[in-house]
Design brief:
Shape: globular
Strand order of the largest sheet: 1-2
Structural class: mainly alpha
Largest sheet: 2 strands, antiparallel
């Protein structure tokens, strides 16, 4: 079944839906961040760099560390501590992906075999732990206690979010508020922390630190909501993983919450059979997409993503207009209009 999901409004031009300006702005710093990442994955234990680099070099856009660099730029930071913090953010993100693929029993990640499919679950978990350890070493080296507090707190919150999602799995009675609480912790927290540490090491006023964090949190929510819609309305090429993985894994995401809430009794029985009882038959995914289309669940998920994207841009209103600010705002349009 072909499903058309309105990822962009007509007002969004293709130029605004790229992060080319952000990439160009951060290019010099990101080259140093990437060098740091490569040097910190080194280990005499051969499997560690093999597993780590399998994912680190698999084509991710490095959006989170790029935002750390950009926010440091926006708030006129003149040191180099943001480079290690950006690398730490990327290591935290990579570690969560390695762990998530084990928990979710995922086969694909960024269009290639998940690390666990190549080296096994044990290696994926342990290399993820190694990367977290390296991330914390870099945080300490920067010497900012507040930045260390922000990122270490984020690590704990992300883990809480994953456990919350585990508890909500297969529970079709999950509410929209409950689901948003999960993605605030699981996804948005790292975006928020990545954006906040730049102004923190720049010793900017609390209002600027809070604004950057708010931008990241709202962008993170928008990012995850688009991912949720893509799992049902996208393609494997766009996702870098198999379409419908969330459905097969019994994950409760916002499109499911909306379709379940708006459906008839018989439709809700379908969701209970497939997600709660894990009785998935051939054609069930197409039927699920059909119900989501009928009840506008995918469209409304994207609409909510746009709402959080607008909140993200509003959070930066206290900063004067600048090429850096405009480039950072491009990330909002890009995250909402992602097609790859």
């Amino acid at each position: 079944m072909a499903v058309i999901v309105p990822f962009e409004s007509q007002a969004d031009s293709s130029a605004r839906a790229t992060i080319d300006r952000l990439v160009k702005l951060c290019a010099a710093d990101m080259e140093r961040v990437n060098a740091t990442i490569l040097s910190r994955t080194g280990s005499e234990v051969t499997m560690i760099p093999e597993v780590a680099n399998h994912l680190i070099n698999s084509g991710g856009k490095r959006l989170r560390p790029m935002l750390t660099v950009a926010m440091a730029n926006l708030t006129s930071y003149d040191g180099d501590g943001h480079l290690k913090l950006a690398a730490a953010v990327e290591f935290m993100h990579t570690a969560t992906l390695l762990h998530d693929d084990v928990v979710d029993e995922s086969d694909m990640r960024r269009g290639k075999l998940a690390a666990r499919m190549v080296w096994g679950n044990e290696a994926s978990v342990l290399v993820g732990d190694f990367l977290l350890g390296q991330a914390f070493k870099m945080m300490v080296e920067v010497g900012s206690l507040r930045a260390l507090e922000i990122l270490s707190s984020a690590a704990a919150v992300i883990a809480e979010g994953e456990v919350m999602q585990l508890a909500a799995a297969k529970n079709t009675s999950t509410t929209e508020d409950e689901y948003l609480a999960v993605i605030r912790a699981k996804t948005a927290e790292l975006f928020g922390a990545a954006c906040e540490v730049g102004p923190v090491v720049a010793n900017r006023p609390k209002a600027e630190q809070a604004a950057c964090r708010s931008f990241g949190m709202n962008l993170g929510i928008a990012f995850q909501l688009v991912d949720d819609a893509l799992d049902y309305g996208g393609t494997a090429q766009k996702l870098g993983k198999n379409t419908g993985d969330d459905f097969r894994e019994g994950k409760i995401t916002l499109p499911v919450v909306l379709a379940f809430r708006r459906g008839s009794d018989s439709e809700r029985e379908f969701w209970k059979r497939t997600l709660e009882a894990s009785e998935v038959n051939g054609g069930d995914l197409d039927h699920a997409i059909g119900l989501m289309t009928k009840h506008r669940a995918l469209e409304d998920t994207i609409s909510r993503a746009r709402h959080y994207g607008a909140m993200a841009k509003d959070a930066l209103a206290l900063f004067p207009a600048s090429p850096t600010k405009e480039a950072i705002e491009d990330a909002v349009a890009f995250c909402i209009a992602r097609t790859h």
